[in-house]
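Let us work through a complete example step by step.
Step 1: write down the sequence.
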Amino acid sequence: MHNKFNKLSIAVAIASSALVASQAFASGFQVREQSAKTLANALSNAAAGAEDAGFMAYNPAALGNIDGNQVVGGLAYIDADFELRNAEASDASGMFDFDRGGSRQGGEAALVPSFAAKTRLKERFDLGLAVYAPYGLSTKYDEDWIGRYHAIESELETIDFQPTLNYRASDRLNLAVGLRAQYADATLSNAIDFGSAAAMQGLPGATPGQNDVIGEVTGDDWGYGYILGALFQATEKTRLGIGYRSEIDLTLDGELKVKGTDPVSDGAIDAGLVTGTGGKAELTTPANLNLGVYHQLTDRLALMANAEWTEWSSFDELVVEFEDGRAPSRTEENWDNTWAFSVGANYALTPQWLLRAGLGHDETPIPGSEFRTPRVPDADRTWATLGATWMPTADLGITAGYMRVFGDDVDMNQDGAKEENATRGNLSGTYEVSADVFALSVDYRF
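Step 2: predict the structure and record it as tokens.
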């Protein structure tokens, strides 16, 4: 029994987690809110806007469109809301109902800071540094909620440090390259149905779905990649941009802690029947490509559009290796590559006030309900944005933006007959997904 529960705790706490946290505002576990200006324009200016140093997170060649020296600081507040409706859960045989009444709401709020700076090195070279979070968010359910054996808490935090070099190849063309050093830290938890396994072995007082052990695993790692970009001033009024960020491979080493929720599960831990241990899992943060156009239609009105491709197909399965040498655990993901499209406009109301707006649509990488989990209840989504930039002086800008995200209702159907769900059971329902995002940034040129 000791070995059985040791393996169970690692498999549930790490392998089922996918080592990611869901988001309601960008596909998969991506964060795009590196700039209040891009958020206010629905990301339609990401590749070709090049309005301040913060844009190097999307296209490093944006540095070539900014004269002199500049610093930018920003903060985004993300309030995600998703709830599982019409939920049903049971053990793999369907005999025992796992509903114990907890809330089915799992959305959490998060703050996402960003910083960027650039300087002119020589006549043809610019140097920049961006610090931002490209992936991650927190989600948390009640410990007694109906899907507790699939997920309770998921938290993934990443931070990229991106030194960037831009080359002014001509008066019209900028080419840039940057290094990405990415740090990732994950905390994940879910319940383990000790009651079912113990009841099968005749342990007195054990009841399926009633005697849970909570397993929590933490892990972190550093990974490295690169970013490339080009910015081309096609005409006096039209600018084209392209930015490519490479994938980054991470190995998250996990340490598992367990706790009981009642006297039976507490006793199992005290007796050594359920133990913590270690494991590690590979995670790839995907490559993505931004393509954009920016056009100054009149002295006051600018129009822009952007298309973003993300290579989520690199996340096809999760393989977990265990410290004690037992056979690896595998979880099938089969995510698809996705596209996001957005359009936007800026209107110069006065020399000091620039109004911003945009619309966008993003695809989910999850191919079907059988691959959707409580950790990543991802859905196709549409967003609408508004914002403004106030420039009290020619060198100082303050920008505020708001994004409302409307997610499609999506089904989830985790089948207990699947090998990976043998200890988690069945879980099904319909997720309702939405989010509100607020962003504020300050840029100063000197």
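Step 3: interpret the result. The chain is about 5% helix and 50% strand.
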